[in-house]
Amino acid sequence: MKFAQRTVKTSSAGLDAIFAASGPNVISFAGGYPDATLFPEHAMQAAFSESFAQHSGSLLQYSTTAGYLPLREKLADRMNRRDHLNLKADDILLTQGAQQGIDLTARLLLDKGDGVIVEGPTYIGGLAAFDAYEPTYYEVPIEEDGMDITKLQKALMQHQVKLIYTIPDFQNPTGTVMSVEKRQAMVQLANQYDVVILEDSPYRDLRYTGENLPTIKSFDTEGRVISLGSFSKILAPSLRLGWLTAAPELLAALTALKAAADVESSHLVAVAVDTFMNDNDLDAHIDAMKQVYQTKRDAMLNALERYMPKDVHFNHPDGGFFLWLTLPEGFDMQHFMTAELLPEYNVSLVPSHHLYASKSIENGARLNFTNVSEATIESGIKMLGQALNDALHPAQVNQI
Amino acid sequence: MKFAQRTVKTSSAGLDAIFAASGPNVISFAGGYPDATLFPEHAMQAAFSESFAQHSGSLLQYSTTAGYLPLREKLADRMNRRDHLNLKADDILLTQGAQQGIDLTARLLLDKGDGVIVEGPTYIGGLAAFDAYEPTYYEVPIEEDGMDITKLQKALMQHQVKLIYTIPDFQNPTGTVMSVEKRQAMVQLANQYDVVILEDSPYRDLRYTGENLPTIKSFDTEGRVISLGSFSKILAPSLRLGWLTAAPELLAALTALKAAADVESSHLVAVAVDTFMNDNDLDAHIDAMKQVYQTKRDAMLNALERYMPKDVHFNHPDGGFFLWLTLPEGFDMQHFMTAELLPEYNVSLVPSHHLYASKSIENGARLNFTNVSEATIESGIKMLGQALNDALHPAQVNQI
């Protein structure tokens, strides 16, 4: 019994190893979870009940692969308002979270060996999805304002590439936002080199400070940008509901691939989310979430300021779920976490190793601030500071 | 912008063309839908409400890729009882319907060009899922008691094959049940030729007459059988909830692939279905459904008996959703439907063409009897009989 070559690769992506690093007594900055206390449980319960009452005879039946039309209309309206786009419902496909959008895009475009440009670091689940199609990765470093465009251009000049995968808004894992200039430049390069851009943006609505920037899609002149959104971070992950926007020819092919993968997303869930949006102000709900997350982000920045050794760098994200630690070169974060931080301090984070397609950068880490309380942030970051101090400056340990 | 080779193939599978053949005035025997009037809407509404009340704080959060443990325990117990298996919860992965189980199995095993044995005819969605991995198909004809085992053996002797795809219980599209002897023989051949069997069995619980036969999995001695089940046909399709059972090594790899494809299935839906099963007797619900479906099957057999021309053959399935029409050789069902049956009689069915991987058999058709009323069955089959009479015996038309 021989597995396909793709399987051998995907199975070793190490997703499980990372998220297993949380137990009942562990302070986990490793996850990518929303704060469960912010879920609109009562309103969602009411939306499900109302959906049953109002959609008798069709709610539990098959629907269409594209998904429930009124919800797709709402999503189009919302993006048109928010992002000054000009979308119709038929430009949208409902998906199983944004994750399925990555999988379907890879399935649409990638034959074995085809070139994909990814950010370094990037979303580990993106790499896991791409792995199944055995691409050749070209990793372009993330700078403070997004992907290094000079290196992106160089990669496009030197290699045969079909897809650029980017998370422009509050990137997972770094929290970085891509500048307007780079968004425009990326589209121009995609046009020049005949490449598709996959704009994965599940955190876009979660900006705490600063002004929103236009989507990459808003600069798309040739129908080359596939955009992904998700209700996981703004409403609830267990809905498993996301959406995908693409030009008609791409969308038709992606819809056929979705039908082959799982027929369609849950009509029941789509109707309930549509009902929720009829009966509640989603934007007001998001605003309330943002206040809590901003406070948590500030608490983490404040604690980092106080407890990090001077040679540890951290960034100041304007939104999203994560910030990024950079340790001095040569530091092995994976070893530090498994040998010291987790067993001795009961604190976990995501070491950089698995977040790079190249697996070449060891001295970084992702910290999540949304699914931990302020008190836990304070005590956890304090312990992380001590542990890093111990590891970086062992001579000082006995003096504390 | 060049699509992957797999995409070009999948997009042309013709799924849409087939199911588009139903409008408001069309009597459709083409779909594969359950009867929506049989859905337990009130009980399901209550189960969702109770889930919100009892799982506050976790219901809307991420869960695990394997899925909600109590539901997997129930599924294991149910299969152990029904099929004399010895499964534990950890032998089961929740999926987006059985369809995702096909996709994940193909992803696990198939490199481009690898051999897959499929039944002729088979489930069109199975072919669509396999197409994405560009296998080489070997088509083995279905007989009255399942796959032709002599031809199966010959195919295994002559070709490099990695996977046998079979629907042993009330097969889609023919309604055929595979005999016990053939189930045993298939496992022996799989052992001998080092092949995995994918046992796709969404209709297994829907037997109206005769005795249930053991699953193929019950004869599995080497952990080579991956079994798929689904709530779509016994509870509701819009739950998009199915399950997959496989030996530990296979299951671990399939779970990693599921994580890469869509992270996990909806925890909310899994808890609600578990709650439904706590508060209701699923088997009693299925028994009630079976009574209705048996009546519809009998109505269709009765109408076929009365209205079909003598040279049209139809089978007598003991369960499931479908029966199979065989027309004289040379008859082109696809042409008949699009040129005569649909435009002139407003009746639709699924012609055999797309249901064969080889696309070589034109004189068959699938008829669905679950999603049509008895009165519609009577009038629709009467018109189908007239239309076939017109087509097969044009001289007789004026005498009716």
Structure, explained:
Two copies of one chain form a homodimer. Chain A is α/β, with parallel strands linked by helices. Chain A has two domains: 5-39 and 284-399, Aspartate Aminotransferase, domain 1, CATH 3.90.1150; 41-279, Type I PLP-dependent aspartate aminotransferase-like (Major domain) (Aspartate Aminotransferase, domain 2, 3-Layer(aba) Sandwich), CATH 3.40.640.10. In chain A, 43% of the residues lie in helices and 15% in strands. The first copy, chain A, contains 13 helices and 14 strands. Chain A has helices at 5-11, 15-19, 41-54, 69-83, 97-109, 124-131, 149-158, 180-193, 248-262, 267-279, 282-307, 333-345, 374-392, and strands at 27-28, 92-95, 115-120, 136-143, 146-147, 161-166, 196-200, 225-230, 242-245, 313-314, 322-326, 347-348, 350-351, 364-368. In chain A, the strands form three sheets. In chain A, strands 2-9-8-7-6-3-4-5 form an eight-stranded mixed sheet, sandwiched between helices. In chain A, strands 10-11-14-13 form a four-stranded antiparallel sheet. The first copy, chain A, has a two-stranded parallel sheet with strand order 1-12. In chain A, helix 12 (333-345) packs across helix 13 (374-392). The longest helix of chain A is centred in the C-terminal third of the chain and has 26 residues, at 282-307. The model of chain A has no long low-confidence stretch (mean pLDDT 95). Chains A and B meet through helix 1, helix 3, helix 5, helix 6 and helix 9 of A and helix 1, helix 3, helix 5, helix 6 and helix 9 of B. Chains A, B: Homodimer. Chains A, B: Belongs to the class-I pyridoxal-phosphate-dependent aminotransferase family. Chains A, B: Keywords: Aminotransferase, Pyridoxal phosphate, Transferase. Chains A, B: InterPro entries: Aminotransferase_I/II_large (IPR004839), Class-I_PLP-dep_aminotransf (IPR050859), PyrdxlP-dep_Trfase (IPR015424), PyrdxlP-dep_Trfase_major (IPR015421), PyrdxlP-dep_Trfase_small (IPR015422).
